[in-house]
Structure formats: structure tokens, C-alpha cells
Amino acid sequence: MPSFYLMFNGNCREALQAYESAFDTKVERVQKYSDMPPDPSFPISDADKDKIMHSLMHILGTEFMFSDSSDDCKPGSNMYVSVSGDERTVRKAWDVLKKNGTVYMELAPAFFAKLHGSLRDKFGVNWMFSVGIETGMA
Questions:
Q1: Rounded Cα distance, 104 and 90, in Å
Q2: Has residue 33 got a pLDDT over 60?
Q3: Which residues contact 35 (CB under 8 A, 6 or more apart)?
Q4: CATH 3.40.50.1260 applies to domain 2-131
Q5: How many helices (H) and strands (E) does the chain have?
């Protein structure tokens, strides 16, 4: 099921509050970077530990996910189409869209999903793909 993933430069919490107010909705899930298991290949600075790694809300019936980016995001390029599904469907879409695109994160196992990866396709659209996302995230 496709949804939208919006990335922020450290002001995700403020954006969530604005969207809650604008659309009369509530944040359903929030995880901070400090909630992530330690990973030497992805160190988290003390300054970033309280930033939002992942959050979720529904706006007018559509799922939106939000995060403070670990990299600097430029307005207009900070949105991803997020696709979750079965492994065959995700791998097929991944293989097609990565051709002549830019892979940000290889499709690989992650602590929160069987597989997760992100890329920008040759048309400039950012995509996130996930298989078997854990639903128990608080």
C-alpha cells in the first residue's frame, strides 16, 4: 500500500503539531533516534537522540510518515513515496526503479523490517520500500 514519507531538518516535532492542528488528527506512533538499537555503522550523536526517527499519522484517511533526516534535506526533495508489501512485489519494483537511479540505502534487513531500502528513480522521485514492517512500534 503506498503512503507518503516526509523528511525534516530537525523540526519534525513542530511539523507534526502543525499537521495535527490543521487536519484535526493525532500522531499515532513516534520513535526517537534514541529508541534505535546501537549500530556502529549509523552512530547517533547526543544532539540527535531526541529527534524523531519515525512517526505516523493519518491525514484525511491517507497514511503519512515523518522523520527528522540524518542528512540535510532540501525543501521539495524531502518527500518519499513509501511502499510496503510482500517480498516479491517489493523486489520487482525495487529492481525496476533502481535502474539508472540513485540508491540511498540498499534493500536489506533492518531492525524494524525484514527488508527496507530507499532510492531516487531516474525521474527524480524518492521511494522507500519495506517488507514485513513490525507493527509493534510505539
A1: 16
A2: yes
A3: 53
A4: no
A5: 2, 8
